[in-house]
Automatic annotation (TrEMBL):
Pfam families: Complex1_51K (PF01512). This is NADH-quinone oxidoreductase subunit F. Residues 53-114 form the NADH-ubiquinone oxidoreductase 51kDa subunit FMN-binding domain. Gene3D superfamilies: 6.10.250.1450, NADH-ubiquinone oxidoreductase 51kDa subunit. It comes from Candidatus Endoriftia persephone str. Hot96_1+Hot96_2. It comes from the Bacteria. Its cofactor is FMN. Keywords: 4Fe-4S, Iron, Iron-sulfur, Metal-binding, Oxidoreductase, Ubiquinone. GO terms for molecular function: 4 iron, 4 sulfur cluster binding; metal ion binding; oxidoreductase activity. The keyword Iron-sulfur applies.
Length: 115
């Protein structure tokens, strides 16, 4: 079935009603960074993570809603040179504020996802 945009917003914005949700301690008290710890401890292969993200139906928050797992699969694991992770949270379009509250109130979830 995959994720709808509404479901994605529920995940990204679920902490807005918490007191000082941007604090590391608050994020960890709600289970933050536990998935990352598990992935690192179990040394989950990148291909498995990409497949799980594909199966989840997770999509980008831009207008096209591009499938995240598909985007990740384009990265060549053995490509030479240094690799970078970029968080594009540009809201240059007039009246667009889709990312601001995530960056402000849920930054650790964003960081955990990027790692």
């Amino acid at each position: 079935m995959g994720w709808s945009r509404r479901m994605a917003n529920e995940v990204c914005l679920r902490n807005l009603d918490q007191e000082r949700p941007w604090l590391l301690e608050q994020y960890q008290s709600r289970g933050g960074y536990e998935v990352l710890k598990k992935i690192l401890k179990e040394k989950t292969p990148p291909e498995q993570l990409i497949e799980e993200v594909k199966q989840s139906g997770l999509r980008g928050r831009g207008g096209a809603g591009f499938p995240t797992g598909l985007k990740w699969s384009f990265i060549t694991r053995n490509a030479p040179g240094q690799k970078y992770v970029v968080c594009n949270s540009d809201e240059g379009e007039p009246g667009t504020f889709k990312d601001r509250d995530i960056l402000r109130y849920n930054p650790h979830q964003l960081i955990e996802g990027m790692i």
